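Run log, item B.
One chain of 170 residues. Sequence copied directly from the ordering sheet:
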Amino acid sequence: MGGQVRSEKDSVETLDWSRVDGATGPVFVENAKQGDTLIVEILDISIEKKGVMVTIPKQGVLPKRRFKPLTKIVEICEDRLCFDSAVWLRANPMIGTIGVTPTASIRTGSLGRHGGNMDIKDLTISPKLYLPVFVDGALFARVGSRLVSYFLLGRVQRLTYRLTSVNESS
């Protein structure tokens, strides 16, 4: 949320959406050339101890259900999201937004061949992500993590990854 939500009194209605999904980077990848493929391997994800959950009317899995926006600060206890002592969900850290610089200027959260706001629950530790390289150096960037689909519940404190550029002709 771009650091805009600090308490449960902060409403999604007052967010500056241009600050949401801001990327960290870019990281210049040595020897990555336009036309290559960048292989991204997620080695480790460390998340902060608190996360933010917002519900947004007319969005997500219940677009027709009427409700007011809600902001909830959630404690992250080891491998669980702890809503209170009796209610918790297992955490599944994943990367929400990740990608390379495309040839045209677009919003970070836009989804496309460059990557973007993918929110793929399987993009966690171990899997490899293959991205086309559009500019020399690839200019790799990533954003925080998501822990439960559609709710931003955690931010990456530290992400360890390996980037490998593969030339299609080799």
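Observations after the first pass:
- The longest strand covers residues 37-47.
- The two ends are 41 Å apart (CA to CA).
Flagged for discussion on Thursday.
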